[in-house]
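Hi all, posting the design record for the shared folder.

TITLE: backbone redesign
STEP: 1 of 1
STRUCTURE INPUT:
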């Protein structure tokens, strides 16, 4: 968005050249300025479109950054939760089945309104 124009479509449209006896033909100047005016309007419209795209992308970036932060926090919670699991432990199907059962019981307790982590 670093484009800075010194003219805009309105300035081009309102520009009046003094007529002289040996000067340019006013109709030719007007037709040329009409084409310049059309180009300026195209540029201005494209800048508005690009600015709206830029703003929407910027808001998406902010949303994604906040999601990343929340996922990083959640990741740290899981790291802390599973920190006592050793890498050398053999993961067997029995262990996986036990974890699945624990998960089902925890889900059931949550549905009943209890926090399984506070039950002793």
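Okay, here is what came back for every position:
SEQUENCE:
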């Amino acid at each position: 968005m670093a484009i800075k124009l010194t003219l805009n479509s309105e300035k081009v449209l309102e520009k009046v050249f003094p007529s002289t006896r040996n000067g340019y033909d006013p109709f030719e100047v007007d037709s040329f300025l009409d084409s310049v005016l059309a180009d300026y309007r195209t540029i201005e419209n494209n800048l508005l479109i690009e600015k709206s795209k830029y703003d929407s992308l910027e808001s998406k970036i902010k949303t994604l950054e906040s999601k990343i932060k929340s996922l990083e926090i959640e990741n740290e919670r899981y790291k802390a939760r599973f920190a006592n699991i050793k890498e050398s432990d053999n993961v067997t199907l029995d262990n996986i089945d036990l974890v699945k059962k624990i998960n089902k019981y925890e889900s059931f307790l949550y549905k009943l309104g209890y926090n399984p982590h506070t039950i002793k």
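COMMENT: Residues 17 and 24 are 9 Å apart (CA to CA).
Let me know if anyone wants the other runs.
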